Amino acid sequence: MWELILILFVVAYLTRWTASGWLARGGGSQQLEAQHTAELARLREEVDTLTAQVVRMQDEQSFMMRLLTDGSRGDAAALPAAEEDPDVPTDEPEKG
């Protein structure tokens, strides 16, 4: 939630900064300087990175919530039984 607010704040700041630059130069008829263009490109990449991290965190949160809700129903639903898994070692020798 806070990450989304942060992203919106950064986008609003960039929009305001860009609009004020265009208005100061005569309504946007002039091109941005190369330094400003590079800075905008870098900031866009940062916003994209933050967006990807927010999406990843939302996925992790939903996964954890699913684990927590499934765990409250009992461990039998989440874990397979030991006799169903042939890779689990047992203390009993094989009867043959």
Describe this structure as you would to a colleague:
The protein has 96 residues and is mostly helical. Helices cover 70% and strands 0% of the residues. It contains three helices and no strands. The protein has helices at 2-24, 34-73, 75-78. Helix 1 runs antiparallel to helix 2. The protein starts with a helix and ends in an 18-residue tail after the last helix.
In short:
With 96 residues, the chain is mostly helical.
Write the layout of secondary structure elements.
Layout: H1 2-24, H2 34-73, H3 75-78
Shape: elongated
Order of helices and strands: HHH
Rg, Å, rounded? 27 Å
| Poorly predicted regions | none
Total of DSSP H or I helical runs spanning 4+ residues: 3
Total E-strand runs? 0
Helical residue percent? 55-70%
Mean pLDDT: 76
Largest sheet composition: none
Judged by helices, strands and strand pairing, the structural class is mainly alpha
Q: What share of the residues does DSSP label as strand, in percent?
A: under 5%
Could you state the oligomeric state of the chains shown?
A: single chain
Terminal CA distance reads 60 Å
